[in-house]
Automatic annotation (TrEMBL):
It comes from Ligilactobacillus salitolerans. Pfam families: adh_short_C2 (PF13561). Homotetramer. One of its GO terms (biological process) is fatty acid biosynthetic process. InterPro entries: Enoyl-ACP_Rdtase_NADH (IPR014358), NAD(P)-bd_dom_sf (IPR036291), SDR_fam (IPR002347). Its EC number is 1.3.1.9. It comes from the Bacteria. NCBIfam families: PRK06079.1. The active site is at residues 144, 154. This is Enoyl-[acyl-carrier-protein] reductase [NADH].
Length: 252
């Protein structure tokens, strides 16, 4: 238990279950004294998230596919908690058929959907959340190395992650003047619900593990640690950056 984030209220978007990277982040934030508020995608997700977070007050629905839902979620946050010191955006989605085979077979709809949920949503969240953000505040999103290298089957999600990282840089520029820092964590591969959508994900996970410096996969706890740092005042000089938390996979 530390006190890096004492008196900070942070919204964590993207917990599906205990394996979620967002859950690793939330735990690390709470361990540093933050009050964490959660959004869940829909009623189905609410069931699994409620098993982890028993305080109903801190659970708010938000489907990032719809502006009204995002607007409503922030109105609810404002009602229940007032201002925020940070937002963790750990959300991505693509249809299974787009995460397999050759990228030239990506459909127009599938491309739009993946980019809408996985990249555009960060802008929408920043837009509707801006009014609630204190000065200073911090926004952190989650990306993956498939934005830079052509990882088998990652395809359209790699494109969405590249756009997400560009969003981070532009948002950092435009929100910086209001005291809001925006950064991304490029996390190593972890077995979560989202990863199982990628064809041959066990190969992806194994190959990633084989490339870490010590042969062990990065954990959601380690990713959470970096998230706590980025939410804290220790990182006030880190702006618009993508920080690798992958145990060296990107080097090797
Ligand atoms: N697992 C990995 O190996 C890995 C590596 C690097 C980055 N990431 C990124 O981390 C983030 C979290 O993913 P995860 O791996 O923890 O998987 P996860 O399945 O636990 O989390 C994904 C979350 O996205 C949410 N989501 C999807 N569509 C949504 C919508 N329309 N509205 C609101 N929420 C929606 C889901 O409900 C879920 O909570 C994603 O951005 C993912 O791309 C994952």
């Amino acid at each position: 238990m530390g006190n890096l984030l004492e008196n900070k209220k942070i919204l964590v978007m993207g917990v599906a279950n205990k394996r979620s990277i967002a859950w690793g982040c939330a735990n690390a934030l709470e361990e540093q004294g933050a009050t964490v508020i959660y959004t869940y995608q829909n009623e189905r997700m609410k069931k699994s998230v409620s098993r982890l977070v028993t305080d109903e007050e801190r659970l708010i629905e938000c489907d990032v596919a719809q502006d009204e839902s995002i607007e409503q979620a922030f109105a609810e946050v404002k009602n229940r908690f007032g201002k925020l010191d940070g937002i963790v955006h750990a959300i991505a989605f693509a249809n299974k058929e787009e995460l397999a085979g050759d990228i030239q077979n990506t459909s127009r709809e599938g491309y739009a959907l993946a980019n809408n949920i996985s990249s555009y949503s960060l802008l929408a969240v920043a837009h509707y959340g801006q009014e609630l953000l204190n000065d200073p505040a911090s926004i952190v999103t989650l990306t993956y190395f498939g934005s830079e290298r052509a990882i088998p089957n990652y395809n359209v999600m790699g494109v969405a992650k590249a756009a997400l990282e560009a969003n981070v840089r532009y948002l950092a520029r435009d929100m910086g003047k209001y005291g809001v820092r925006v950064n991304a964590i490029s996390a190593g591969a972890v077995k979560t619900l989202a990863v199982t959508g990628v064809k041959d994900h066990s190969n992806l996970l194994q190959e990633s593990q084989d490339r870490t410096v010590d042969g062990a996969s990065v954990t959601t706890k380690e990713i959470g640690g970096a998230c706590a740092f980025l939410m804290s005042d220790l990182s006030t000089g880190v702006v618009g950056d993508t920080i690798y938390v992958d145990k060296g996979v990107h080097l090797i």
